[in-house]
């Protein structure tokens, strides 16, 4: 709750709940702990270990490439079954961000890590980052309901192994459950009938694990963002003919930069948007009027919906494409004791989560003033794409939150001469790398198996200091 002191009103928070122990939730826990200002910090996660989506789910047998039974265009209103907590991580997943940019500010990835690490390396990294806050974690605990009360918030939970339920009061809640759990499948004419008549043919990237299940099949991949690019490249090595990649026409400002940088391939053929599924002939009709016949598999790489089924009050847009009413993609403008981490897209998630966590922790400890009510409302964004924050917006966002955090009141108990835990701040070299990482990823991928030995940007020909000299910016 805030007292009434104009622009300098401050929050009085003592007990904080964090929902999720992935990259965002762990960042929140680390910065909240560093404030030394809260009697209770409790981080809930339904998985048995920290790491969030980086905890790979094997999916063997019939679970591999799980069916999609039709369009899914609105956020799920029910909780994920504890027996079916599925990560979207697949067997050969590597990051599409160099770890030198991806890491938390004060904790680099282990030495000898490949420049774009495999998913198991990221999981191990996050679990190392979780060690200082292990005592704050309530694992195998599903949050079933979060309710606003007159005195703050109540969080209803269920401990999955025992079935024990609890209702716990808090002053503030930080939602850090990510947005890669509720698959978006577009509403395309005939899709439901097609999926019903041809079970096992239609799936979503969330359930993709390995290319071998598509061997000698005619495959369409729908979508050409990060997962679509990677999955289509993998399937292209084993499928019958070139893999067909279907994508809507869109303006150049939203084109995926990795796709724009990639070299043309004889094993991948771009096709227009699918406008109709034809169940009787196992075909699809495209927006240019042509028909592709004898389709053996369709993989929707069409992203995910924002969904928070545990919140008593609905907090997403009806189509799940954005979270309305957020100040700076972060705080509920009408109640800043509710915060959402990791909402921005097309960003480098770990440092963004750290920058957000640093400011929210200082805000909840009372070291930073709360923005005025007018300012809270003024920066809310609405509409599809409201949270897209590609370069250079993400650099500016990280540095803006850094500046706010370092303006906090000093506390002699805290590290760095009372400043507290320092969030990331991106200088020219980080911004230079951020701008180029799509091209860096393509150069890395083109090395094939040799890429595992690439640990530094310079090994791929990307040298910031050399670039500066070429620009004449330094002697």
From TrEMBL:
Q: Does the keyword Flavoprotein apply?
A: yes
Keyword Flavoprotein: yes or no?
yes
Molecular function (GO) terms for this protein are: monooxygenase activity
Q: Which parts of the chain span the membrane according to its record?
A: none
> A single Pfam family, by name?
FMO-like
Q: What keywords sit in the KW lines?
A: FAD, Flavoprotein, Monooxygenase, NADP, Oxidoreductase
SUPFAM superfamilies recorded for this chain? FAD/NAD(P)-binding domain
- PANTHER family under this entry? DIMETHYLANILINE MONOOXYGENASE (PTHR23023)
Q: Per the similarity annotation, which family is this?
A: Belongs to the FMO family.
The protein here is known as: Monooxygenase
Q: Which organism is it from?
A: Sporothrix eucalyptigena
* Gene name of the record: FMO1_1
